[in-house]
Each structure stands twice: as C-alpha cells, then as structure tokens.
C-alpha cells in the first residue's frame, strides 16, 4: 500500500505527468467524439508507393518541426531564463538561403546548382549566425532575450525575401520533396525520421557532454556557476547557436514540404507554439532545471490539439481562439501554484484516511 | 527630555521569528552633533535605524522628538519624514535620469497641477549654493559624481526641514577626496543644528567627524561615549565584546608546519582589484594555515576573491610555486589548484535547484571539461564518499541542495572543493550561520588537511576561530593591509590593536 502511493506520488510529481494527462484527455475526447480519428489507412502516391495516412500520422508528421524547435527552445530557456521569438523568422531566412544556394538567380532551375546537403549546410550556417547574433545581444550586452530576438522577429522575413530578391523559387527536382514528404517505398513521412534523429542527437549530446549540467547551473545561479569555473556568457551564447542549428533543420523540413517558400507565411507563429511546448512540459520559463523529453512531448500534444480542432471542422481563422482556451487550461493546471495546492489537498485527504484507518 | 536633545529612543525592543534583534536599546541624539552608531554585523544597527524610520514597527519602547509632546508614533517612512527624520542610504535612491532640481523636489511639489520649472530650479540652485554643493539645478543627476549625487540626496533631505539626518554607510562608494567633501557638508549641517546619525564601518571616518559614539552588540545597548573617552582600541574591543582585562589568550597547539626557506605555494605582489582594495602582497607556504582578519568591509574577502579571479584584477602579479601565472577568471585559478569557498553561500555557492550530488561534483566536472562528463557511477561514488566523510545530513544524494540546512549546504560546497584536491584552499566564512558542533568539525578538518600538505586561507568573523586555526594573520583596515601577525602575536589584544591602528 505504502509503496503504491509512493509510486503514484512520484508519477504525479514527474514533469511528464501534465503533458501525458493532456495527451490522454485528447485521446479520450477523440475516442468519444469520433473513433475514426484513430484509423490509419494505406494510400498510394502518384508514383504508386503505399504510404500511411490518418490523423495520427499527420500529428507525428506535422509535429516534427515543433518537436525539433522545442529541443532548442528548452536549452535557450534553461540557460537564459528567456525565450527566442525569432525562430519563425529565422526559419524563413534559413529556408530562403537553402533555396538560393540550390537555384541561384533562376527561380525555376532545370538542374540544382548544388547538392541538397550543401544547401542545408549553408542554410544551417545562416540560422546559426542568426542565433549567434541573438546570443551576443543576450550574453554580452545583457539584453532581455525577448527584446533581443524581437529584432530578427521583425526583420527576419524581409531579410529572407531579400536573400532571393523576392523571387519565388520552385524546385522541380523530386528528391528535394522526399525530405519533407515520403521517401520512395517508405510508408512513414520522412520528417518523422528527422525528428527522431534530432532526439537521438540531443540524447547523445546530453550523455557525452556536460551541456545539461552547465546550462542548468547557469540558469539557476549565474554567479555560483562563474565561481565554479563555468563561463556563463559563453553558455548563453552557445544555447542560441544550438537553437539556430535546430531551427535550420525545421527550415529544411518546411521548404521541402512544398518545394518552395512563402516568405510571409512560412512557419508563422511557430515560436509561440515552441515556447508553449516548453511550458507545457512543465519547464520553468524563468530558466534552470529542464527536461527535454517533457518539452518534446509538449510539442506533440500541441500538434495533437491542432489536428483535433481541424477534425472538428473549426475554421482555420477561428483556430487560434479555440487553441487559446485549451492552452489556458493546460497552463493553469501545470502552474506551480496549482500543483502545490493539489499536493496539499492530496496530503490532507491522506492524513484523514490515515486517522480513520488508525481508529 | 533634556534641553538640546533632538531625539531620544528608550527601551526599544524588536523581535523577528527566532531572533531578538533589539533588546532594550537606547539612543540619544543632541542638537548639532554627529553621532556614530557602531557595531559589528548583526549588532542591530540597521534594525534600530529601520525602527526609527518607520520601516519596522517596534515591539516596545518609546521615541521622543524635540518639539513633540510625549511619544511620537512613526508607522511608515512617510511619517518619519513628516516629523523631520530623513535618511540617506548607502545606495543612492534617486533617479539618475532626472535633473538635480527634479530629484530634490520630486514627490513634494506644492499645490497646483502646473509645475513652475523656473521657480523650482531657482530654489534648487539656492539650496545647492547654500550648502556649497558643486552641481547645477538643471544638470542631469546621472552626470554628477557619486559623491555629488550623495550630497544632492542629503540636500533633498535637509531641505525637507529635517532635524534628524541618518546617513547609512554614505561613504562606502566614495574615494578619499569625495569623503572629505561629504564631511565638510556634514560639519556644515551640524553647525546649523541638525543632528546627524552616522553609520559606518570605517574607523578612521568615525574619528574624523563624530562627536559621540553609541555601540551596540548582539542587539543590546553597550554604551554611549564621547570620542575622547573611547579611543580606537577600546572601540574595537567594545564592538567585539572582549574586555581588555579579561582577554585570556586561548592559545592551542597548532598542527602547522610552515618552513621559511621554501618557495611559497602562492605568492602575490601588489595585487589590485576593482573592488576598492589597495594593492596588497601575500604569500602562503605548503601546509600553512593563514587568515585575513579585519572588521567587516575591511577588504578581507576582496583580497582572496582577487587571488581566485572572482573579481577583476587591475594590476599585480600572482606566482604559483615561483612561476608567474595569469588568472583572469575562476577557471584559471582552479586549473592551478586553487579552490574558493565563498562568503555568500546562497548567492555565490550553491546551485539551489540542483541535487546535492550535482552540487558536489560541479567543480570537478568543470575541471574535467565540457566533453568529459563523469559517469553516473563515478558521480554517485564521489557524492556518497563525501556525504559520509563530512557527515552531510541529506535524505539522498538526489535531494535538491536548497532543501538542506545551512550547515549541510556549506558542507556540500566544502565537499565540492575538496573533491578537486586543491593545493590551496580558500575558506571565506566557512562557519557562518552553522551550529557549534559543525564549526568545530570544520576547524578540525582544516588543521587535518593542512597537516597533509594543503595550504589554507581561513577567514572568519569569529576571532577565536582564527586564533585557534591560523599560524599567520594578515590584518586589514579600510581596504589596506595594515599588519601581519605570527606566532605569539596572534592574540585578541594584538589583533584588536592592529585593527585599530594603535
């Protein structure tokens, strides 16, 4: 009995508890509302390859970018106690750079000017430079992260358009589209594999470096960290550069999904979802300790919610309002104040039970 | 109340949960006098000031003011101002981006929605001229020197028709010339009949301007003296609570072996940091325990922080075993085998949300490098080893360090540095706020480590501890090294006379 309650307590106290409960609620809701939500069918592509289709597949497919961004956003949040609101705009910059490398000045080239891999590397460099810019402002000039990243948030999409001189490059090469859709013969969307690869990479980085310990230390107590030989400025700077790398991966998925770019719309408002994923994962937005898996789970919960709302035929312009309602609920439930209250109540109930049991 | 008295506080009591901060304290201020309020940290100076200015409400006691019949009740800083008590704090609480005149009149412009700028500026200029303060009414306050800003704050207070002016550590961010200017202003105000309460920890300054001294210790009133009655040495002994007569020296055998001829582990020449300490020399031999002593704020922590690279150094040489090294940041010092347990455990020591285990291995982990994390197995082994060695009371190594008691947190930080196996360990107030048993444990550990060859600098506010553990003491006053005591010279009497400069 004692052990059982302990396990329960441990689970309730776990960071993954809230996102998991949210996920469960969404699943139950969909089961009642329309069980066909969970049906997975096999469709044939134009080329005749079988691919999986259904709401669940679209959640793990379209949740990929968000999950990837949530990784980087968690690290920035932990180290700086602030958030990067420029990720959507930097996706535009990075994606535009990739297209520029592939197309040059001809919007619809017959042949790609460079291998896709090289284009990605250049795009990644661009995104990491943007991250370095943000990081410099935050770490060296001690500007609030939200204010520092407001600069690229505002200017980023114009810069993206300027990189391609406002042309709309369209890539005809089919292998480019494989990245954002399906590889020939593989029934699962490629972005899912990319997201998994990113998770494996961050898991390895956390295992084989001190990234997690040092970022957490800096986020919790900068002065103590400095007196223990950590360079807090460098850690903050690097967190933005790392986020830049993940942003470029998200950008690659975004542009390969449609083989083109719309500067003003691509990845619009994705920064807010990414920040929300971090919060939903129970991570403190004021920095310090973090759990990257909780953020990733949070990202998929948000995507689950979006897909559910689409299924309910909510008009796309009304979507944000509905989403906001659910988000308010989730955020309140996961707020430390509510959690403490909840813990107190359960403690009281337990104490009462113990008294009754004793008699 | 006697004639000529502006303020009289009697039998003031104030308790906080667990602390009886003021126990029947009295304080009398006469017209046109500068009265220094002295005491070591925790003596109750600031509590008394806060009671007087309405920040805290007193539990018991009475406050009487000239021109008021009977007791005055001061329930808020606003009340205090209304009855003519003004305070100028250590940090300037004015608005640097407003003009001097605006700062002087802010929040008290009389009647009418329309501000008369010209009148205001004229009035301000008049006051400034009157008090001989080198500033213009229209000048932006931020463009004045710190001393002038401080004077403007005083001018503001004086102009509010104050009878009692409290200056709480007004000189701590001023240089010598600026201090002189401030003193001139203080003497000027004194001649106009203002009673000034002067709180400072600089002994020289007390004797430079004060007429009387009131000493508090451990929340109790110790005495009120004229400056002539209380020479420096006596002041220091009164503050520390050691009567000169019964200063029995508690000398014990020290397990310390400092050989003279060898090359020092650490040698420092003319080291100078941005924190206001004067350039200092220092050395420590292998297996030696020495200490920095001096009153609070004398610069003893700043010296060791400069050696560790915690504060920015602006000159001087550090040699390790005779070789010149460059220490620009704590990591450089750590790589040279220096460890530093900081004075402020909460802000500079612990990483609150992290576990006991992570806190213990942190410094070692940083030394190992970013790409070489210790395995979980190693971490657990180290954590368990030191939890046992130092008898750290924690539910588990995974418990967040912030939920431990202060003494156990301190042991974790000590464990963190011992784990790096330093050649030179700096302990700044390692026993502050921890229970007696743990204190003795730490002192014993220090002596044991030294006998194994570690060099240790030990800083403590409690002189008994220093006398018991250190074989050499560097004595500091007002940011300057004023003496060095070794062997039999290390005694309460000698320390105090060196601190006092007599």
Topology:
The complex is a heterodimer of chains A (359) and B (502).
Chain A: H1 2-13, H2 17-33, E1 41-44, E2 50-53, H3 55-80, H4 87-103, H5 116-139, H6 145-163, H7 174-180, H8 190-208, H9 211-220, H10 222-227, H11 232-258, H12 270-280, H13 292-311, H14 319-334, H15 336-358
Antiparallel strand pairs in A: 1-2
Chain B: E1 5-16, E2 19-30, E3 34-38, H1 45-52, E4 60-65, H2 77-82, E5 85-88, H3 100-105, H4 117-130, H5 146-159, E6 164-168, H6 176-191, E7 195-199, H7 203-209, E8 212-217, E9 220-226, H8 232-240, E10 266-273, E11 280-284, E12 289-293, H9 300-308, E13 313-320, E14 323-325, H10 330-335, E15 338-341, H11 345-349, H12 356-368, H13 376-389, H14 406-418, E16 424-428, H15 436-451, E17 455-459, H16 463-469, E18 472-477, E19 480-486, H17 492-500
Parallel strand pairs in B: 3-7, 3-8, 5-6, 6-7, 12-17, 12-18, 15-16, 16-17
Antiparallel strand pairs in B: 1-2, 1-4, 8-9, 10-11, 10-13, 13-14, 18-19
Helix pairs in contact in B: 5-6, 8-17, 12-13, 12-14
Description:
The complex is a heterodimer of chains A (359) and B (502). Chain A has helices spanning 2-13, 17-33, 55-80, 87-103, 116-139, 145-163, 174-180, 190-208, 211-220, 222-227, 232-258, 270-280, 292-311, 319-334, 336-358; strands spanning 41-44, 50-53. Chain A is mostly helical and 359 residues long. Chain B is globular and about 70 Å long. In chain B, the strands form four sheets. In chain B, strands 5-6-7-3-8-9 form a six-stranded mixed β-sheet, sandwiched between helices. A six-stranded mixed β-sheet of chain B has the order 15-16-17-12-18-19, with helices on both faces. In chain B, 46% of the residues are buried. Chain B has helices at 45-52, 77-82, 100-105, 117-130, 146-159, 176-191, 203-209, 232-240, 300-308, 330-335, 345-349, 356-368, 376-389, 406-418, 436-451, 463-469, 492-500; strands spanning 5-16, 19-30, 34-38, 60-65, 85-88, 164-168, 195-199, 212-217, 220-226, 266-273, 280-284, 289-293, 313-320, 323-325, 338-341, 424-428, 455-459, 472-477, 480-486. The longest helix of chain B is centred in the middle third of the chain and has 16 residues, at 176-191. Chains A and B meet through α9 and α10 of A and α10, α11 and α12 of B.
